[in-house]
Amino acid sequence: MNVLITGVAGLVGANFAEYLLKEKQQLGINIVYGVDDLSGGYIENLHMDDPNFIFVKADLSNEDEQKSVENIFMESKIDYIFHFAAYAAEGLSPFIRQYNYKSNVLPTVFLINMGIKYNIRRFVFTSSMATYGVNQTPFTEDMRPNPIDPYGIAKYACEMDLQVAYDQHGMEYCIILPHNIYGKYQNIWDPYRNVLGIWMYKALCDQPFTVYGDGEQTRAFSYIDDILPCLWKSATLECAKNERINLGGKKHVSLNDAAKLVSKITGKNDLVYLEPRHEVKHAWSSYEKSEVLLGYEENTSLERGLELMWEWAKSQKSRKRVFWPNYELEKNIYSYYNNVHLLTISRSKTKSKRFRSS
């Protein structure tokens, strides 16, 4: 069978492609097609020399570039779509609304069309805990979504479209809601998302860790290796058909405690508290459904996972950081988004020697 993975050069996509290629004989996989525009992922994360892997560079929000991806469906039978591509800067999304919806909704709609048109077996979509918004913790799958930012709204819109695609066209789906995934191949150079990665980048550059608000926000984190088998099962098991499943994160911690753990591992302990942002204070989910349906097991503690990620991070070369030159909206924007360019420029001269040169 053949599968297509979007966002294949990013954290989840690259690790999942690696997992499928390693287990291809056992899983019965022929070709893994990977799609990415390389705006947030890196070609070095991919096994380009594997004959069972085919990569296509494409921006799925661009109609012209969509054609190269439809050619895959026309020329090969795709059994499963794993749609991981997203711009998941939740806190930034209120200030880049048009980009948020363009990059998160339009590619999903295109892929849903492809799934229906070319009769795939199932569409696996990674949604977000942001869809729960303000709700009682732990978030459970039967709760009514209540997103409070454009990113969560975009993800919930995609979920609803998948449900309609099944009701009207019979295309099976499975919606996965991951818990703050971290590990190797994470884009630690992105200044707008992935708090653990941001802290590790700052540790490498001898910069203080930054926390928005008082740091008492609670979150759950999941090491990437623990969820990979479940992603495959979400596509292939009958019990996962048309289900919405929280995946990962059995233990929740405050951001203060998470920062202390990263400090312990990296040897850096400077912490700076910045103004709070518009976000859900406590966001963590149930995990029981993933255990029953997907056999989820949390084999990696947060401390051990961070140790593994830190060893990987220290081996990485220096990469160019990408900043927004202009936001769509600046009304009520947080000061640190306006200052991020100045802070980076002023500190770039003291870049840590742990980074190898490009």
Care to describe what's here?
The protein is of the alpha/beta class and 358 residues long. The protein contains 12 helices and 14 strands. A 7-stranded parallel beta sheet has the order 3-2-1-4-5-6-11, sandwiched between helices. Helix 1 crosses helix 8, helix 7 packs parallel to helix 9 and helix 9 packs across helix 11. The chain starts with a strand and ends in an 11-residue tail after the last helix. The relative contact order is 0.13.
What is shown here, in short?
Helix content is 38%, strand content 15%. With 358 residues, the protein is an alpha/beta fold. β5, α6 and β6 (173-178) form a beta-alpha-beta unit.
Summarize the topology.
Elements: E1 2-6, H1 11-22, H2 24-27, E2 31-36, E3 53-57, H3 63-75, E4 80-83, H4 97-104, H5 106-117, E5 122-126, H6 150-169, E6 173-178, E7 181-182, H7 195-204, E8 209-212, E9 218-220, E10 222-223, H8 224-236, E11 244-247, E12 252-254, H9 255-266, E13 271-274, E14 282-283, H10 288-294, H11 302-314, H12 335-347
Parallel strand pairs: 1-2, 1-4, 2-3, 4-5, 5-6, 6-11, 7-10, 8-13, 9-14
Antiparallel strand pairs: 9-12
Helix pairs in contact: 1-8, 4-6, 5-6, 7-9, 7-11, 9-11
